[in-house]
Design brief:
Layout lengths: L6 H29 L1 H12 L6 H24 L3 H22 L6 H15 L9 H8 L5
C-alpha cells in the first residue's frame, strides 16, 4: 500500500517531473534560442533529402518539437497543466522517432527512451499524488477541477 502522507513520495514525484522538465526545456531552449528554428529546419531538411518527405512536414516538425520541448518542459518544471504538457511532449517524441527512423533505421534511441520513461511515469501518476505543483495549488484553491 502506498502511503501518500509520506513526504518522500511527494519529493520522488517532484524530482521525476522536474528532471523531465529540465531535459525537455533545455533541449527546446537550445533549439529556439541558440541554434535557431531555421537552422534546426535546415539540418532536418538536409538529413531528409532524397527521402520524399514534404518540406512543409519537416518545417512543421522542427518548429513544433522545439516549442513543445521549451514550453512543455517549463510547464513540467513548475507542475502546471502537466498532463497537457506530457501529452504534447509524447506526441513530439513520436514525431521525432519517426523522423530519426526515416533518417537512420538503427539510430541510438537511449535519450528518447529515458525521456519517454519519465513521461510515462508522469502520466500514470494520479494528480492527487503530485502535491508540490501549481496544479495541486490551483486544485486546492478551487481554480482547477479535481
Amino acid at each position: 500500500m502506498i502511503n501518500m502522507d509520506d513526504p518522500r513520495m511527494a519529493v520522488a514525484i517532484l524530482t521525476v517531473r522536474v528532471i523531465a522538465g529540465i531535459l525537455f526545456f533545455f533541449q527546446g531552449y537550445d533549439k529556439v534560442f541558440n541554434v535557431g528554428i531555421g537552422q534546426v529546419r535546415q539540418t532536418m531538411n538536409s538529413s531528409m533529402a532524397g527521402r520524399n518527405i514534404p518540406e512543409f512536414l519537416v518545417t512543421f516538425t522542427a518548429g513544433f518539437s522545439s516549442y513543445v520541448e521549451l514550453i512543455g518542459g517549463f510547464l513540467l518544471i513548475i507542475g502546471f497543466f502537466k498532463f497537457f504538457a506530457a501529452y504534447f511532449l509524447c506526441f513530439s517524441l513520436v514525431l521525432v522517432s519517426i523522423g530519426f527512423s526515416i533518417i537512420k533505421p538503427m539510430w541510438d534511441s537511449f535519450h528518447l527512451v529515458f525521456r519517454l520513461a519519465l513521461l510515462i511515469f508522469i502520466l500514470i501518476t494520479p494528480p492527487e499524488w503530485d502535491i508540490i505543483s501549481f496544479d495541486h495549488l490551483f486544485r486546492m484553491s478551487g481554480l482547477l477541477s479535481p
